[in-house]
Amino acid sequence: MKMLLALGFIFSASVFAAGTVKVQVTLSPAGSFTAHSEKVRGFAEKSGSKYVAKELTVEVGTLKTDLDLRDEHFQKRLGGPKSKILIQNAVGENGKGVATMVANGKSNPISFVYKAEGSQIVARFNAKPSDFGITDVKYMGIGVEDKITIDATIPAR
Known about the structure:
Elements: H1 2-15, E1 18-28, E2 32-41, E3 45-47, E4 50-59, H2 68-77, E5 84-93, E6 96-103, E7 106-117, E8 120-127, E9 138-139, E10 142-155
Antiparallel strand pairs: 1-2, 1-10, 3-4, 4-5, 5-6, 6-7, 7-8, 8-10, 9-10
């Protein structure tokens, strides 16, 4: 019985293993902030020399910047805390890949670089907020630049 429970726990942990994501936002004229979440859902599978991830998901409300008011504004610009950011149909080979990113109700192709580290994939995506309908974000003379960097670590099988 103990063995069965242990196997069940290992199976459920591997199916529901969460990844992490960090969204680095540069501000103009100076400064930056990072939004982070440890609740990325999905995984990559090795298929020959390629890694494939059908869908990676992070709920916007899990992205935290360590300032509540900034979290509220950040999440509102991304469609609200219950909205999701998706990376779909990601295919990578030899450290480079392409996918479709869905955020704020808009879908766009996105490229990325990655490396396999044991049982994880560490990937970096560069995106433009304007591609997802996010423009003219300013508060007291400080604005968001039209380039963000997304670093994600996800389980690989």
